[in-house]
Design goal:
Number of helices: 3
Distance between the termini: 11 Å
Oligomer: single chain
Largest sheet: 6 strands, mixed
Radius of gyration: 16 Å
Structural class: alpha+beta
Strand order of the largest sheet: 1-2-3-6-4-5
Length: about 140
């Protein structure tokens, strides 16, 4: 890729999606690639058919991270490329130890920067956790 082609690629915004694209009806991209980064929209603990997984916070958290992983894979990336994580939970006091467990299951050294926020609600009333990430696309560098 020439310098001009590389500069054009950096200025372009590309939609990233999995099949099925469960966000399309809501006019949301699952992720976008721009400026050498992939920005993954918040993913919750739901199956491909849109149903929330059973089993409580850890089950939902694992599914949310798996959903993030599917979107990263669609972008040609993985969790090792993640440089920033945002985690939104409904009950911080009860679930902080579970969040730490999830971080250990899906993320590795050097751990990405992370923001953990307690929220009153998420998009669906039965969701307990939502995870968003920013990944570095080293191929764009």
């Amino acid at each position: 890729m020439s310098t001009n082609e590389s500069a054009a690629a950096v200025g372009r915004v590309e939609k990233i999606a999995t099949t099925p694209d469960w966000y399309a009806p809501y006019r949301i991209s699952q992720a976008v690639r721009a400026g050498g980064f992939v920005y993954v929209s918040g993913q919750a603990g739901f199956e491909e058919d849109g149903t929330t997984v059973e089993g409580g916070f850890l089950a939902q958290g694992r599914q949310a991270f798996k959903n993030v992983g599917r979107v990263l894979e669609a972008a040609g990336l993985g969790f090792a490329d993640v440089i920033k994580v945002g985690i939104f939970v409904r009950d911080m006091a009860a679930n902080l130890p579970h969040v730490i467990t999830l971080r250990g299951e899906f993320l590795t050294e050097p751990y990405p920067a992370d923001t953990l926020v307690e929220v009153v609600s998420l998009a669906q009333p039965d969701w307990q956790i939502e995870v968003e990430v920013i990944a570095l696309d080293r191929r764009a560098a």
